[in-house]
């Protein structure tokens, strides 16, 4: 899935090539001078040349509406940071490219200030308070998982996380919702049900999550309500209070807030995991262990 819609949305425009850097989620630290854009005749020619090159590179014909610019300062004195927005058949997304000040070189990717934490912007956006978590609140390593209950890969990660949690009891694991309703029709209902379990009894969230993932193949839009109520009962919850919560706006708002945060972080697939702000799309367990080990080793003695 790309951002807040789904994976196939941008297959038509080959947009994944241009957004390769954005899909890694990490963002660059903006230059303080960035709001002051260049608008000279030279800059107009640079934008025109850059747009023509990008259209040729990705075979974007007249049906693709391209909005490029203005030219903003970047961390490098030799390059501009240039916002890019592409619209195709009513669907739009944005990124940025870097263009040399002579207009002869363009690259897509990320530019970092080596004197700063590369994940500081992500950490500023990752709000973990008020979400299901396991492990000490003051843990040196915090793993934040954005997942969709109808996503098969999220089910696999849910099992893998049990091994992670057992092997690393000193870390904190936080769960956040990112249901992709356009392709997973009951995922949002499941997320609301799990949130209602958390609201009633925080520890019951994990029982509910295990039940939903474990029974994923038999849940449908037709039976999801009954399934969730049954899971709530098995978790020892008050089912009347659970049903009332499912019908109230509170749990839905919490799910929507998490989903919006995922959009702000440019999440384009589930599961996506962050280890102390370091993004890991797909949640590969081996890479996850690598990231955890790295940050644990950097822990002050």
Q: Tell me, rounded to a whole number, the average pLDDT.
A: 87
The first-level CATH class name of the largest domain: Alpha Beta
Radius of gyration: 22 Å
SSE pattern:
HHHEEEEEHEEHEHHHHHEEH
Main beta sheet: strand number and arrangement? 5 strands, antiparallel
Please give the share of residues in helix: 40-55%
> Which class best fits the helix and strand makeup?
alpha+beta
CATH architecture identity of the largest domain: 3-Layer(aba) Sandwich
How many structural units, i.e. domains? 2
- List segments where confidence is low: pLDDT < 50 over at least 5 consecutive residues: 1-35
Percent in strands: 15-25%
Q: Which fold name fills CATH's third level, the topology of the largest domain? A: Glutaredoxin
> Gap between N and C termini, in Å?
41 Å
Shape, please? globular
Assigned CATH superfamily of the largest domain: Glutaredoxin
What's the total helix number?
11
User: How many E strands?
Assistant: 10
